[in-house]
TrEMBL record:
Keyword DNA repair recorded: no
Family membership: Belongs to the ACC deaminase/D-cysteine desulfhydrase family.
Domain of life per record: Bacteria
Annotated organism of origin: Megasphaera massiliensis
PANTHER family, sorted: 1-AMINOCYCLOPROPANE-1-CARBOXYLATE DEAMINASE-RELATED
Residues of the Tryptophan synthase beta chain-like PALP domain: 13-311
Keywords from the named record: Pyridoxal phosphate
Name under which the protein is recorded: D-cysteine desulfhydrase family protein
Family annotation (InterPro entries): ACCD_DCysDesulf, TrpB-like_PALP, TrpB-like_PALP_sf
Acyltransferase recorded as keyword: no
Amino acid sequence: MKPIKPKLSLLDTAPTPLQYLSGLSQELFREIYIKRDDLTPFGGGGNKLRKLEYLMIEALNAQATTIVTVGAPQTNHGRLTAAIAAKFGLNCIIVTVGEPEAELSGNLFLDGIFGARVVLKRDDGRDKDVQLEEAAKKVIADEVKKGEQVYFIPMGGSDTTGLLGYMDCARELDAQAKEQQISGATVYVPVGSMGTYLGLYCGLKSIESDLKLIGIAIMPFDMEKLKAYFTQAKEEYGFNFDGDFHVETGYIGKGYNEPEPRIREAIYTMARHEGILLDPCYTGKMFAGVLSMIKEKKIKLGRQVILLHTGGMPGLYAAPHREKIERDVKDRIQVIK
Ligand SMILES: *Cc1c(COP(=O)(O)O)cnc(C)c1O
């Protein structure tokens, strides 16, 4: 199938592996697979690269010299945007709202390595999205004044263009599942800015795949916003299917990127059965949700489960998470003479 819009080729290692997790499957009495979109080949990898294949070509075609994007201080999207901007010789500015930390950690640390500039707006207590928008507008105006041609990428790369990256992933995954004779499995995906979920949804629907899709919200979730996003995509691309979404909102816990013992337990479970690292903000929380759904028998015995690994590993090293993990594991270090 021809892509709907032009794209860059940033995933020359695609298809990303679809792996069977034998240890976890045995332990949980479900057939568990993982789609390794963390193993994409730039900037440490992650789901945002698929979106950037479509977004960055738009930026290049618009003769952009500077990419401006927004996100939380630990945004993986910002890190990957910085990496791809570097690859194409563009400036990258990541605008974020928060308080400066004593120590640069996780993604903030890596953003600098990729040569990005991070504009950290001090949180004044108002709605974060409003603050982000204002700060981004100001940064863009300053850049334009300097003569830069700015291309703006919204939070998480989740617009109708970025969505196309996960429509591609849906086709890729469907073909792999068929090849491995996994039909009728349910794909589980963390839901943040929604582009990954909605792209997969539209991709699977448009090829009438027999894979089902469930999103696990990792932050407060607004169904109306998802519907509006879908309506926009439907208008632009003329989809002939409806939006019939399944997003679980019962596993958000304390809030966006908050450290929680159940998330760390899920990370340790994956690491100690399969040797695969999840992240504390998205994939760890999603897997904690899936483990709860198994315990609650919402996912029945023998069912086929495909976890989408969206990346995010640097989050393990973000100061608040690292501190807690250190406490959990430090007894495993045995010092001898
Ligand atoms: C951004 C991100 C997600 C969520 O994807 P959205 O398209 O924003 O919903 C999931 N996992 C990781 C690691 C991410 O960086």
